[in-house]
Design brief:
InterPro entries: AhpD-like, AhpD_core, CMD-like. Pfam families: CMD. By secondary structure, the chain is an all-alpha fold. It contains eight helices and no strands. It has a single domain, classed as AhpD-like (Up-down Bundle).
Length: 151
């Protein structure tokens, strides 16, 4: 097991952590179901290999009512019956936004259009901010080798 290189940079700069926390509060208050936000957070964190965010996202998803099947099989959501069309749209958007460099058209119209049928602009804004802030935390935790379970 690798060891932590340094504390999370946002912890070392408290004003940064306060700003990130404020963004999270704004997202939580924007009207999107907390379970959906947690599943999106968990999926992005799985993609990015961020241990603390995977552990925290799984915990949050369960707290917000995600089933064990949803949490356990999230990485294979396309091949399972446990996600609604709305959840699938959010997860597809999460994957596309998290993997921007993986294709010439980072978020294809098909992914965007399906998401836009399930979410209004306010909700899409909250989802995009959730994905962005998750990726920010992943990009702070992964290079500094933050460990899950060290709260």
């Amino acid at each position: 097991m690798s060891t932590e290189r340094m504390p999370n940079p946002a912890v070392l700069i408290p004003e940064a952590m306060a700003a990130l926390t404020a963004v999270n509060r704004a997202i939580a208050g924007a009207g999107v179901d907390g379970r959906l936000l947690a599943l999106s957070h968990l999926r992005a964190s799985q993609i990015n290999g961020c241990g603390p965010c995977v552990a925290g996202g799984a915990h949050q998803a369960r707290q917000h009512g995600a089933t064990a099947d949803q949490v356990d099989a999230l990485a294979a959501w396309r091949e399972t019956p446990w996600f609604s069309d709305e959840e699938r749209a959010a997860l597809a958007l999460t994957e596309a936004v998290t993997r921007l460099a993986d294709r010439p058209d980072p978020v294809p119209d098909e992914v965007w259009d399906v998401a836009a049928t399930h979410f209004d602009q306010q909700e899409l804004a909250a989802l995009l901010l959730n994905i962005a802030i998750t990726n920010a935390f992943n990009r702070l935790n992964a290079p500094t080798r933050q460990q899950a379970g060290k709260w």
